[in-house]
Design a protein that fits this description.
FAD/NAD-bd_sf, 13 helices, FAD, 489 residues, single chain, FAD/NAD(P)-binding domain, alpha+beta, 8-stranded mixed sheet, FAD-dep_OxRdtase_2_FAD-bd, 2 domains, oxidoreductase
């Protein structure tokens, strides 16, 4: 059965709850959920997918993605050179600070090397990286048309294969028999199935939960009140909270997330990639008091961009300002909003509402500390500062070529890392015991691999790997259940 119309869906929801609707129930509508649904259907299981969003907003955070981090031992189509397993692992180890499950992380890394042919089979197309993203041409495969095109391709393939899809169906609770899944509920509607995959995302759009996770700081502020939600508005963590309260084993720090510094003018929800400010490593970043607070040139931008949201969240009023001069123009992917422009530093400070004298002093002190060698933004070059705290380790050029540009920054939460503990079969655990027919994929379990930090494209790698595993395992569990029922009869 293809997509259910709103009218039919409403009529179905008001009908008597079905005793059983599918072999495999998939809860969620993003990349991980779709991978699970497609794999279960390919294995021969009947599949029902429940997406909380309306059709036009389907796809969760996956609609805002653009690439997948891929291990490869030699050049492959859109990927240049090689990106072997050990380098991928070291990159992940560095950004997480060691807070990761190595066997599960390596499972994801290895799976990333073999998933692209399967993705192509389901209509996903890849392209060489765009200008401004060439530094990840070796590590990341870019989707033609971005995440929205990927999501649409998967939905088309799912519909063609007979996956049933219901939109505007948020699941709020699960019925269990011990550690076995029995049914899911969306309001009064009950959905029974022989196996289930949970892939309903984190809790980033639940402001009350974010407030609870981040708490109140020493300045009396509630940092979460100033967060923008870079991802979907539909991830409120209702199912995640229910599962934890029902005894599912949890993993991860609720305050950790994929938290990016984005344009302060971005919308509250669904700003996506175009609101990210990518010029941080080409200039300096100051807080509301016009003081620098971190090394802007610590490492390549794809490995460090995701730390800046948390850094800004720790500043007064949860705001920062990325400052560049004309030398940086054309060297980064421009954001959707133009920067504030001025011909002098004092004028820029006034336009941004920063203390003028302090701002000028901060920039002049930085300029004087710059030791310019051979600038190359594609390498860890030798342009650095001396006798400056915090230092700028690479790409340190004086800000001396007007016009100057400034971008106000806010923390932008993409997805949260608190999730459910899993094993290599994507099974949900209760008191250390894996469920025989309940699985989890995507952001609801990403904290097993991402204890903190992020590197570009790894979220899609996790979702794709565990989505495919969960779908395969759920189909197997459903068939075993059918066989046991027949034998008992």
């Amino acid at each position: 059965m293809a997509e259910v119309s709103n009218a039919t869906q409403s009529a179905t929801q008001s009908a008597t709850p079905a005793d059983s609707v599918a072999d495999v129930l998939v809860i969620g509508g993003g990349n991980a959920a779709l991978c699970a649904a497609l794999m279960a259907r390919e294995a021969g299981a009947s599949v029902l997918l429940l997406e909380s969003a309306p059709r036009e907003w389907r796809g969760g955070n996956s609609q805002h993605t653009r690439n997948l981090r891929c291990m490869h031992d030699a050049p492959q189509d859109v990927l240049v050179d090689a990106y072997p397993e050990e380098e991928y692992w070291q990159d992940l180890l560095k950004v997480t600070g060691g807070i990761t499950n190595e066997p599960l992380a390596r499972l994801v890394i290895r799976a990333s090397s073999t998933c692209r042919p399967w993705m192509r089979k389901h209509g996903v197309h890849f392209q060489p990286p765009l200008s401004g993203a060439l530094h990840v041409a070796r590590t990341n495969a870019f989707f033609m048309g971005g995440g929205k095109a990927l999501v649409n391709a998967y939905y088309r393939s799912a519909e063609a294969l007979g996956v049933q899809i219901r939109y505007e169906t948020p699941v709020d609770r699960i019925e269990m028999d011990g550690t076995r899944f029995v049914a899911a509920y969306s309001g009064a509607q009950r959905f029974a199935a022989r196996a289930c995959v949970l892939a309903a995302g984190g809790f980033e759009s639940n402001r009350a939960w974010l407030r609870e996770a981040w708490g109140q700081n020493e300045r009396g502020e509630w940092p979460a009140d100033n967060f923008l939600i870079r991802g979907t508005r539909f991830n409120e963590g209702v199912l995640l909270k229910h599962m934890i309260e029902a005894g599912a084993d949890a993993i991860g720090d609720p305050s950790q997330s994929h938290c990016v510094a984005i344009d302060a003018r971005a919308p509250l929800y669904d700003g996506g990639i175009c609101t990210r400010i990518d010029c941080v490593s080409l200039g300096v970043v100051v807080n509301r008091d016009a003081e620098r607070f971190y090394d802007e040139g610590e490492d390549f931008w794809p490995k460090r961009y995701a730390i800046w949201g948390r850094l800004v969240a720790q500043q007064p009023d949860q705001i920062g300002y990325s400052i560049i001069d004309s030398k940086a123009v054309g060297r980064f992917m421009p954001p959707v909003f133009p920067g504030v422009q001025a011909n002098t530093l004092p004028e820029l400070a006034r336009q941004l509402g920063l203390p003028e004298a302090r701002f000028v002093e901060t920039v002049q002190r930085y300029n004087a500390a710059c030791r310019v060698g051979t600038f190359d933004h594609t390498t860890l070059d030798d342009c650095h500062t001396e006798h400056l705290q915090p230092p700028k380790t690479h790409w340190a050029l004086p800000l001396d070529a007007p016009p100057f540009f400034g971008y106000a920054l806010r923390p932008g939460i993409t997805f949260t890392y608190l999730g459910l503990k899993v094993n290599a079969h994507a099974q949900v655990h209760f008191g250390g015991e894996p469920s025989a027919n309940l699985y989890v994929a995507g952001e609801m379990m990403a904290g097993n691999v991402l204890g903190k930090g992020y590197t570009a494209g790894v979220g899609m790698s996790i979702g794709t790997a565990f989505g495919r595993i969960a779908g395969t395992q759920a189909a197997r569990a459903a068939f075993e259940s059918k066989g046991a029922a027949r034998a008992a009869a």
